[in-house]
């Protein structure tokens, strides 16, 4: 579903991504781990078509994100570190608005409310303005949009950063549910513990390179931490 | 996504922000005050005109006693330029040009329009300034529009909403245009309704005038909306957008007109009135002396059998000869004035704020062209008066009471209605300026595609 093919991204003399390749199939979670500036967010932005790679290709469902961005965006949902929504609108209105932007045909109030409920948002919060929402509640509206949009792929850029442990656990439960429904998920995160728990595959990035690709089910938390620290200590 | 859905949500967000209702209430207050101010000016001018007409009538009645005692009795006439049907809208240049004249048949043409504009030197009027509806439209309406639309896209970028929006299958350009139209109409239509309501309340009653006023406001508003779109393409942060909006307002509404005027004054300086008056005075003095000398040296005419004394004929001939000599000086002064005015007139089309002010002045009838047309009609009336005097001399019979009572009165003839070529040129200039800004925004639209 998501395919990075020898992605190279240069900003002048700086190489932000260096020959990055990986695949995320439907029903898989690919976690990108790495320090700040490792190239995780750049990789995600290439899939969104916000950036153009110097060489290589980012493809979604076989479609190039650079050449056919609108068709690609129809298939995926992006959840950044903080899901920024319109503060003046309610959670329900935000979902309706973004569902319309996403071109979702079936937007009956019942379906939208079901999606918000499935994303774990309390019913009494539906009609409340988003300006009063916590970060976790905003993330849930993002997940509700993924549900309504029936996104084939999720791009999550450090989605649990800043969430309290309970909210983080709840969020990971939600993405596992999305994975189980066949969604391909690419998640950039710093949370090694959660990554090992939810991921199918883990990619360790350092200085724009994908240093290692690990099977999450075949590695312990300690081994992951040691490998991570080992990779991060390598010079570029 | 449908255009209507985006627009509906945009307006919902705008209304919940509360800035728009507050701005519209403010605009209503300022508009009402400006309209009242315009009405007060019209009332003041009409009162002044009534006094002038009364004085003219009294002069005519007093002079009636002299009919038959002189070859012709042509009392001082005082033509007036009445305020137009939409006068309360804009005081414009009405204070800068005379609205009345002193027509003395055998008088000096340079004195026709000298006893003028009673209020131009009135310190009370000067201190208060001219806060009319045109000021509200030209200066304040852009501010209202910019407050509502300057952060069209920068707010989304700043808050991070743009990333979620742009990750959806939607064209950023289309989205921004629909947002702009929604916000633009949400601010412009109520603003237009306010302007029309207060203008009607102030006595602007010409349907055609009101229609052209509405069109002018909409086109001027469209120009500022196009600028908001350009700002949306350029600014990444709300502060940047606010600074850009403020700078553009200052440049377009305040700086550009002043700088243009200063440049025109350098390129084609307006002729000095003082110098002109001095030259006229000197020339008149020379002519008078020369004519006196000529009369002193000439052999007195043998007494003629004419009913009208030769001295009267001589005075008429001297006056005509003097005016003929002065004509060149007057013409060259008028030519210099016209060159200055024409240059300003052309350059106004490059300045949207000035073109709008000009269109409003023309709709209100307070523009320079109408004032100059009045002067032209006054001049024609004066010439007709003088020819009347000549006719009495030529027929060698003094004026009769019937002829005196039937003396033509001046009536200003409005040549055309509100929709004049000048207004159309102003509106065309606004359309072209808007299209140019839209082209610039179009060239920058690729900047919208990244959050």
Alpha-beta classification of chain A: alpha/beta
E-strand count of chain A: 10
> Count of DSSP helices of chain B?
15
Determine the fraction of residues in helical runs of chain A and give it as a percent range: 25-40%
Strand-helix topology:
The complex is a heterodimer of chains A (236) and B (451).
Chain A: E1 2-11, E2 14-24, E3 29-34, H1 40-48, E4 55-60, E5 63-64, H2 69-75, E6 76-79, H3 91-101, H4 109-118, H5 135-149, E7 153-157, H6 165-180, E8 184-189, H7 192-198, E9 201-206, E10 209-215, H8 221-233
Parallel strand pairs in A: 3-8, 3-9, 6-7, 7-8
Antiparallel strand pairs in A: 1-2, 1-4, 4-5, 9-10
Chain B: H1 3-17, H2 19-63, H3 123-128, H4 133-149, H5 154-159, H6 161-166, H7 172-201, H8 207-234, H9 238-267, H10 273-297, H11 310-347, H12 352-364, H13 368-395, H14 401-405, H15 421-443
Account of the 3D structure:
The complex is a heterodimer of chains A (236) and B (451). Chain A has eight helices and ten strands. By secondary structure, chain A is of the alpha/beta class. The two termini of chain A are 30 Å apart. The mean pLDDT of chain A is 88. The longest helix of chain B is centred in the first third of the chain and has 45 residues, at 19-63. By secondary structure, chain B is an all-alpha fold. The model of chain B has no long low-confidence stretch (mean pLDDT 88). Classes of the chains: A alpha/beta (236), B mainly alpha (451). At the A-B interface, α2, β6 and α3 of A face α1 and α6 of B.
């Amino acid at each position: 579903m998501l395919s990075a093919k020898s992605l190279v991204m240069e900003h002048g003399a700086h190489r932000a991504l260096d020959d990055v390749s990986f695949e995320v199939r439907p029903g898989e979670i690919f976690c990108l781990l790495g320090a700040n500036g490792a190239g995780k967010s750049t990789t995600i932005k290439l899939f969104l078509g916000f950036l153009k790679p110097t060489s290589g290709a980012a493809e979604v469902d076989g479609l190039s994100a650079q050449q056919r961005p609108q068709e690609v965006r129809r298939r995926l949902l992006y959840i950044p570190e903080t899901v920024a929504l319109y503060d003046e609108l309610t959670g329900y209105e935000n979902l309706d608005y973004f569902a319309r932007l996403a071109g979702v045909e079936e937007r009956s109030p019942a379906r939208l409310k079901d999606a918000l409920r499935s994303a774990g948002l309390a019913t009494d919060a539906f009609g409340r303005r988003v300006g009063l929402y916590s970060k976790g509640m905003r993330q849930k509206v993002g997940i509700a949009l993924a549900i309504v949009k029936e996104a084939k792929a999720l791009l999550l850029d450090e989605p649990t950063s800043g969430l309290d442990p309970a909210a983080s656990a709840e969020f990971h439960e939600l993405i596992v549910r999305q994975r189980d429904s066949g969604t391909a998920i690419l998640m950039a995160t710093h949370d090694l513990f959660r990554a090992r728990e939810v991921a199918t595959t883990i990619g360790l990035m350092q200085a724009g390179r994908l240093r290692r690709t690990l099977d999450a089910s075949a590695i312990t938390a300690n081994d992951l931490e040691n490998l991570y620290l080992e990779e991060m200590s390598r010079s570029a | 996504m449908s255009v209507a859905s985006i627009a509906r949500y945009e307006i919902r967000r705008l209304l919940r922000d509360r800035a728009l209702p507050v701005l519209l209430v403010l605009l209503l207050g300022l508009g009402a005050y400006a309209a009242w101010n315009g009405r007060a000016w019209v009332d003041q001018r009409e009162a002044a005109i009534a006094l002038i007409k009364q004085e003219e009538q009294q002069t005519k009645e007093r002079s009636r006693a002299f009919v038959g005692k002189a070859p012709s009795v042509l009392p001082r006439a005082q033509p007036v330029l009445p305020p137009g049907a939409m006068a309360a809208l804009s005081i414009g240049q009405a204070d800068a040009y005379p609205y009345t004249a002193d027509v003395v048949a055998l008088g000096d043409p340079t004195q026709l329009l000298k006893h003028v504009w009673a209020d131009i030197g009135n310190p009370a009027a000067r201190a208060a300034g001219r806060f009319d509806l045109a000021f509200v439209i030209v200066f304040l309406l852009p501010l209202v529009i910019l407050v509502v639309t300057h952060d069209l896209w920068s707010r989304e970028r700043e808050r991070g909403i743009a990333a979620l929006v742009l990750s959806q299958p939607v064209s950023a350009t289309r989205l921004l245009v629909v947002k702009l139209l929604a916000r633009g109409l949400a601010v412009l239509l109520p603003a237009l309704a306010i302007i029309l309501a207060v203008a009607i309340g102030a006595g602007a009653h010409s349907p055609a005038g009101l229609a052209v006023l509405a069109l002018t406001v909409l086109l001027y508003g469209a120009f500022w909306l196009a600028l908001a779109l350009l700002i949306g393409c350029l600014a990444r942060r709300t502060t940047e957008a606010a600074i850009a909006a403020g700078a553009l307002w200052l440049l377009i509404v305040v700086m550009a007109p002043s700088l243009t005027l200063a440049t025109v004054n350098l390129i084609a300086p307006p002729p000095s009135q003082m110098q002109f008056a001095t030259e006229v005075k000197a020339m008149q003095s020379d002519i008078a002396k020369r004519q006196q000398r000529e009369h002193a040296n000439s052999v007195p005419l043998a007494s003629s059998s004419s009913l009208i004394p030769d001295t009267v004929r001589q005075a008429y001939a001297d006056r005509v000869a003097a005016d003929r000599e002065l004509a060149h000086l007057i013409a060259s002064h008028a030519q210099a004035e016209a060159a200055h005015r024409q240059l300003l007139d052309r350059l106004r089309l490059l300045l949207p704020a000035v073109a709008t002010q000009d269109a409003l002045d023309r709709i209100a009838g307070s523009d320079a062209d109408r004032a100059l047309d009045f002067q032209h009609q006054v001049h024609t009336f004066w010439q007709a008066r003088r020819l009347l005097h000549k006719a009495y001399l030529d027929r060698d019979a003094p004026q009769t009471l019937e002829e005196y009572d039937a003396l033509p009165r001046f009536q200003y003839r409005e040549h055309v209605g509100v929709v004049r070529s000048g207004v159309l040129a102003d509106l065309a200039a606004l359309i072209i300026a808007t299209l140019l800004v839209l082209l610039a925004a179009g060239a920058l639209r690729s900047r919208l595609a990244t959050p």
